[in-house]
Write a structure and sequence with these properties.
Blueprint: E1 2-6, H1 11-22, E2 26-31, H2 38-42, E3 46-49, H3 55-62, E4 67-70, H4 84-105, E5 110-113, H5 142-159, E6 164-169, E7 171-173, H6 180-189, E8 195-197, E9 202-207, H7 208-221, E10 227-230, E11 234-236, H8 237-247, E12 255-257, H9 259-263, H10 266-272, H11 282-289, E13 293-294, H12 299-305, H13 312-320
Parallel strand pairs: 1-2, 1-4, 2-3, 4-5, 5-6, 6-10, 7-9, 8-12, 9-13
Antiparallel strand pairs: 9-11
């Protein structure tokens, strides 16, 4: 197949591109800077320069594609107010333009990558695709807000007949993970994590290669209009950090940074932005993590697509080579 991919230079997107090329698909990646995408070029991916900012140019890039896999977006927690417009455009605006362009050229199949984050705080429950969040609780972060809006946009397009199937990854980790949670795993594995902060954040830990495999399975066999959670074991951050330390033959950090103490730095982050390693909006970081669980189960994808996510210990070995 001829598959156009957005976000192929990203953490998950690069693995999806590699898996598609390995089985012989023609992969076309829309990237801002083709000269910098040497890893994709080495895989035999066709690189097309574009910023996904114009429907007309996107339409030309989608012409002749069998599938559009949309993974481009912005993921950061704790951003400042000045960064919000860019995130809104990356997560909602880009999705809108891509779907408009796909409708213009008649792209027969679209895989949209959402996130289990759209369920909000599951309050300790491991949920499935039927779960509906309580919007009265508000949004946990601006990322949460923009991805929810994009997810709702996609749902409206599906209701209007657009040929879309939705992937919903859990908390993704693996080689090349630059997220805050991934950074804590790496430090714990190396024995360099001095303390645990927001350790009662709950994620469904999913190895990146398994997520990519799930997206490919959705591409091949997912039912149009359906959503599929792609998630691994649901654990608190402190337990995942402990497992990473043990995998690296290190002692898990004993010091737990109280959230109350962390809150004392909120005025500093508001005044000076990202200074001394603090996020620009520490209050949002705390709100999105303090006792919040983003837990979901992949039973539907396992049953209908044969999806399997490895356990955390196996994923940590694959991540750190030990």
């Amino acid at each position: 197949m001829r598959i156009v991919v957005t976000g192929a230079t990203g953490f998950i997107g690069g693995v999806v591109a590699r898996q598609l090329r390995a089985r012989g698909d023609t992969v076309v990646a829309i990237v801002r800077n083709p000269a910098g995408a040497t890893d994709l070029r080495d895989l035999g991916v066709e690189l097309v320069a574009g910023d996904l900012g114009d429907v007309a140019s996107i339409s030309g890039q989608l012409a002749g594609a069998d599938v559009l896999v949309h993974m481009a977006g912005s993921y950061r927690i704790g951003i400042g107010l000045s960064e919000r417009p860019a995130m809104l455009d990356a997560n909602v605006g880009t999705t809108t333009r891509l779907l408009d362009a796909a409708a213009q050229v008649g792209t027969p199949r679209i895989v949209y990558t959402s996130t289990v984050n759209v369920f909000g705080n599951t309050h300790g429950e491991v949920v499935d695709e039927t779960y509906v969040r309580n919007l009265a609780e508000g949004f946990l972060s601006y990322y949460d807000l923009t991805k929810y809006r994009a997810h709702e946009l996609v749902a409206a397009r599906i209701a209007g007949g657009a040929p879309i199937v939705v992937a919903m990854p859990g908390g993704v980790y693996g080689p090349g993970d630059h997220s805050e949670a991934g950074g804590q795993l790496a430090l714990a594995h190396a024995g360099k994590l001095r303390y645990i902060a927001l350790g009662d954040t709950g994620l469904s830990w999913t190895f990146v290669d398994d997520v990519a495999d799930g997206i490919v399975r959705i591409l091949d066999h997912g039912g149009l209009g359906d959503s599929y959670i792609l998630s691994g074991p649901s654990l608190l951050l402190r337990d995942a950090v402990g497992a990473a330390a043990i995998a690296g033959h290190r002692r898990p950090p004993r010091l737990v940074l109280p959230t109350g103490l962390l809150r004392l730095f909120i005025p500093l982050s508001r005044r000076f932005g990202a200074v001394g390693g603090l996020p620009a909006n520490l209050a949002e970081t705390i709100r999105a993590g303090d006792g919040v669980t983003y837990w979901a189960r992949a039973a539907k994808a396992e049953r209908e697509l044969g999806f399997q996510a490895r356990d955390l210990e196996s994923g940590l070995r694959a991540t750190f080579g030990s």
